[in-house]
Amino acid sequence: MPTYLWTGKTPSGQEEVERITADTPEAARKILEDHGWTDLRQHTTEIHNFAQQQGQAASDPNYRPNLTPRQELAYIKGTAPGLWQNWLKSLRESITSILILSACLAWAIYRQRTLFMVTSSVLLAVVVFLFPVLHLWFSQTKNAFHKLHAARNWRRWDEVLKCLDQMQNAQSSTKIGIGEAEMARYRALALAGLGQVDEAVKGFSAAAEKANMPRWLFHVHLATIYSMAKQYDRGLEMYRLALDEATDKSVVWIDMGIYLVERFHQVDEAKQLLALAEGAQLSELARNYLPNLRGKIACREEHYVAAERHMRETLAGYEAQPPKKYYIFEPAILICKGYLAVCCAAQGKKDEARQFFAASGEYLSVVCLDELVTQYHTFMGE
């Protein structure tokens, strides 16, 4: 049973963060409402829950942080303290040792005691620089993961495979990882992008079964794997299977709606899925995908003024995310700018259109949204 992270106001009116375990987000919300909570906002989904469990299983229990709900929320939002803040905190906690060792070093220099000077210098350096050294050591997996995401965003599949090897080596040395199923998924995306679809599906399927991945999530991931191989019909089949299997269908409704518009021009069914998603309990992140889908439907129907309004709302939501999360939102941001380029060009706002296309045009070609590129050039008279 998944655990969901929520924020809201307690009966006393205080803002709090709480974890609730329930079958669905709706059931979790009802538990909190029955306890008198209001202004409820959902921050995690079953996908987050599964990924978290996989990371914990792949990592040494001694390195597993015991986060409070509020601390977990800060990490999800990208507002948790970074290296410099944590380093300063460690220095403040060690201030007594630093002062003593500094005094010893000053005395050794004054008395010209070479051995004592060297010893004090080494100990002082250890106390001051131990935290950043350990931070860099244990950040190997995270750093490789960020590189992997950037390579995956731009479909640099050979680089993705190299990053996966780096992550495997980092996990061996630091005992921190993302789990076999996630590693297999990224490897499958790369193999599918390189044309080795059967091998990709076989490897991912075996890892997903071993990890007991929810079937609906398994089929959503298969949809993205087939998409990387440009087998969009197979991808849509996987989305339909996921829709039948999911208990919380909100993520599938939104993802499948966008897929139908971008790859199949099926606006009517996408509208039906949008209506279902609009009436569902959504996480705060998922909410930003509603104007995204609205804008893409409007653009497909050539309602460019409405499309521009929705896509600007979407872009503002993505760009409001912390810079350290950019690697996650980069594809959505660039595709959004591509739609804005088309919408502005269609309305004769050519200067804005050029700016949006300059940022996104190359990426649109990389992800095979060639029709948007053609529309842009047609509206610009190029």
Brief account:
The protein has 382 residues and is mainly alpha-helical.
Number of strands: 3
Largest sheet: 3 strands, antiparallel
Radius of gyration using CA atoms only: 25 Å
CATH topology of the domain at 248-382, by name, is: Serine Threonine Protein Phosphatase 5, Tetratricopeptide repeat
Total helical segments:
20
CATH architecture of the domain at 248-382: Alpha Horseshoe
Protein architecture, described:
- The protein has 382 residues and is mainly alpha-helical.
- Among the domains are: 75 residues, no CATH class; 55 residues; 135 residues, Serine Threonine Protein Phosphatase 5, Tetratricopeptide repeat (Alpha Horseshoe), CATH 1.25.40.
- 74% of the residues lie in helices and 5% in strands.
- The chain has 20 helices and three strands.
- It has a three-stranded antiparallel beta sheet with strand order 2-1-3, sandwiched between helices.
- A hairpin with a 5-residue loop joins strand 1 and strand 2.
- Helix 4 packs antiparallel against helix 6, helix 9 packs antiparallel against helix 10 and helix 18 packs across helix 19.
Describe the protein's topology.
Blueprint: E1 3-9, E2 15-21, H1 25-34, E3 38-42, H2 46-58, H3 69-77, H4 83-93, H5 95-111, H6 114-138, H7 140-153, H8 157-174, H9 180-193, H10 197-210, H11 215-228, H12 232-245, H13 250-264, H14 267-278, H15 284-287, H16 289-300, H17 304-319, H18 326-346, H19 350-366, H20 370-380
Antiparallel strand pairs: 1-2, 1-3
Helix pairs in contact: 4-6, 5-6, 7-8, 7-18, 8-9, 9-10, 9-11, 10-11, 11-12, 12-13, 13-14, 13-16, 14-16, 16-17, 16-18, 17-18, 18-19, 18-20, 19-20
